[in-house]
Design goal:
Number of helices: 4
CATH superfamily of the largest domain: NADH:ubiquinone/plastoquinone oxidoreductase, chain 3
Radius of gyration: 26 Å
Distance between the termini: 62 Å
Number of domains: 2
Order of helices and strands: HHHH
CATH architecture of the largest domain: Up-down Bundle
CATH topology of the largest domain: Methane Monooxygenase Hydroxylase, Chain G, domain 1
Length: about 120
């Protein structure tokens, strides 16, 4: 029984050994010439302004959640589109009700102002 798991154990040991070895070797032989320019945070070529501990608006998180919801919708849409003819009327009604609930949620977000970025 142990012989069947031996290749997996060897693969895990090789992967961990490679990761640890890469980190140790880069620390030992890598160039170490820090400067103020190299240690500054890179923000698309623009000098950083303010503290790195600034707070994000709640609107940012609301827009992110709405984006994730619509991504999940696409995940459900692909299998339905592939099996559209096989599902028949049942598939059409099920997807119609799914879209109805999704549109109601979208209208609710829109009316509450969750999609407006200020």
């Amino acid at each position: 029984m142990l012989n069947s798991y031996l290749p997996i154990l060897v693969l895990i040991l090789i992967a961990v050994g490679f990761a640890v070895g890469s980190l140790v070797m880069s620390g030992l032989i890598g160039p170490k010439k820090p400067s103020a320019v190299k240690l500054a945070p890179y923000e698309c070529g623009v000098p950083p302004v303010g503290s790195a501990h600034g707070r994000f608006s709640v609107k940012f998180y609301l827009v992110a959640m709405v984006f994730i919801i619509f991504d999940v919708e696409v995940v459900f849409l692909y299998p339905w589109a592939v099996l559209f003819k096989q599902l028949g009327m049942y598939g059409l009604v099920a997807m119609g009700s799914f879209f109805f609930v999704l549109i109601v949620g979208f209208v609710y977000d829109w009316k509450k102002g969750a999609l407006e970025w200020e």
